[in-house]
Amino acid sequence: MELSVWKNNLKAVKLQRNYGFLLNVFLSVIIILCMLIIYKKSNQYSTIVVPAGISYPVNVTYKGVDNAYITQWAEFIASLKLNVTPDTIAKKQNTLLEYVVPQKYGAFKEHLLKEVERVKQDELSMVFYPKDTKILDEANTDVKVSGILKVFIGDEVNQTLDVSYRIKFIFDNGRLLLDEFKEISRV
After folding, report:
1. Of 167, 170, 165, nearest to 103 (Cα)?
2. Are 55 and 72 spatial neighbours (Cβ–Cβ below 8 Å)?
3. For position 140, what pLDDT does the model report?
4. Residue 36 within a domain
């Protein structure tokens, strides 16, 4: 009788061992799959960014940015450059210089200093109201921003212009840096 109990116990222990072994194999496969997924995703990262003045979330990855980000970033850069008063121009243009590609920093700074001098000397204020923003070349992050530019001298509107600007960016390590800001039409 003891032998049959012993054989039944041995059978139960072997069954538990086999189930335990299968469970270990299954969990090992799951862990290996998880490690493979983590390894694949470790080289890809994505950041959701909602900076001040940007109205909705955008996606920035190590490969580039989405069209929503390019569009809103172009409007932000246009705002920094074109919405100025004699009191705010220096600060706005210093902020703008933070977003300029290093190779063009000197030329941009020289141009902006002349603009600061002109705005302060003539006591000009400018306000830009963007109407339309189009991506001209997605691969090269080339954007056209069109809108109304109002130029004030003192409290009175001196000019109201329908203008378009071409803004070109370079994507560098997760940042869009300003490469070119050029007026392309004026009505």
Report:
1. 170
2. yes
3. 73
4. no
